Amino acid sequence: MKSIYPTEYALTPEMRIIVELSIVPLGEGTSVSNILAYAIKELEKKGVKYELTPMCTVFETDSVEEALNIVKAAHEAVFKQGVKRTVTTVKLDDRRDAERSMRSKVDSLKKAVEKL
Amino acid sequence: MKSIYPTEYALTPEMRIIVELSIVPLGEGTSVSNILAYAIKELEKKGVKYELTPMCTVFETDSVEEALNIVKAAHEAVFKQGVKRTVTTVKLDDRRDAERSMRSKVDSLKKAVEKL
Amino acid sequence: MKSIYPTEYALTPEMRIIVELSIVPLGEGTSVSNILAYAIKELEKKGVKYELTPMCTVFETDSVEEALNIVKAAHEAVFKQGVKRTVTTVKLDDRRDAERSMRSKVDSLKKAVEKL
Amino acid sequence: MKSIYPTEYALTPEMRIIVELSIVPLGEGTSVSNILAYAIKELEKKGVKYELTPMCTVFETDSVEEALNIVKAAHEAVFKQGVKRTVTTVKLDDRRDAERSMRSKVDSLKKAVEKL
Questions:
Q1: pTM score, two decimals?
Q2: Which of A101, B68, B92, D96 has the lowest tally of Cβ within 10 angstroms?
């Protein structure tokens, strides 16, 4: 299997909410990494455990409130760069019947694929 | 930076369409890895270069048509397991003014974050 | 129900943030309207101007913070019904260079289509 | 325009796949209705029953293949206007244990809300 997973967060305590964040700035040209970097920097400032993927940033938190506060900070960081409009997408995977983490979720799927 | 990126696809030719796929089966309990594994297996059968993330699967193709054919195969693979309903989300990042890949997209954002 | 069709929000003051909300409960069968109704009820309790569509609920607010508070309330209302897991998707269309509303956005697109 | 408000699709035969489509063009300024109109026009040319909402366009089809062909046509219509990059999001609600339509889905949720 060619896919990847993050050995970096092996010691993460099992947390509940896994969040996908994607911010698309309009009217800023077709290359937007330099702008999006400010959103990611905000996650770093807050000590959020995150993963960059080619389509979104994924992070984990232990409450919905914390998740949304982080989203708000990242979203505002982009506007502080002078951006006039964004389409910001947030997906919360909130599961309350089992402990898991970003890592365990990927591991679980990988194992299931290997069994087939 | 704690984030990750895929050293595994260093030699990938630069391709155009980067696709995010997420399939959520309804009515199959709260643990769905065993079902989703069939969708991923479909990507493997087709030789698609993909990355599993905690929230979605990301892959790259060189045309919209190919992207959608892969999505269709993965989506149908889930229904073949007896699933009665899914919410399947597909996001296409289609850029026609620059060559890039899943890897170069992540690298570009990482570099921009490091400069801040 | 205070919601839905465009003529009903003719007098809306022009507000900034337009929000799309979709909550998918896992493990609750394939028919989930009875559960999602509690999320919508939360919007009504808060006096939020919203529109039901076949795929999502759309509402408008005058700040990101208010938008996220409403999302949180709707999301929690679903868990209060005993749901164990949801995938909750939120999309914020935040535009700061022009006043507009849910209604003006649709009108603007309709007019552009008619011109073709 | 053949689209939009629920009373207009009262006679629709009950179909299976309900599709949400959103196309965000990058690098084209913050006002993009004039571009997106070409995507909607494509739906009209194909005789697709659709609904414009403030955040997305929703349509219904009777197969996944047809749904994806329509998405492809709408997506390409935007590139034909000279756009260089889009983030195009497609959500398929595919339910195989019950007949329903865009209209019946909204009606069902409205009724559930009224009962609370």
A1: 0.90
A2: D96
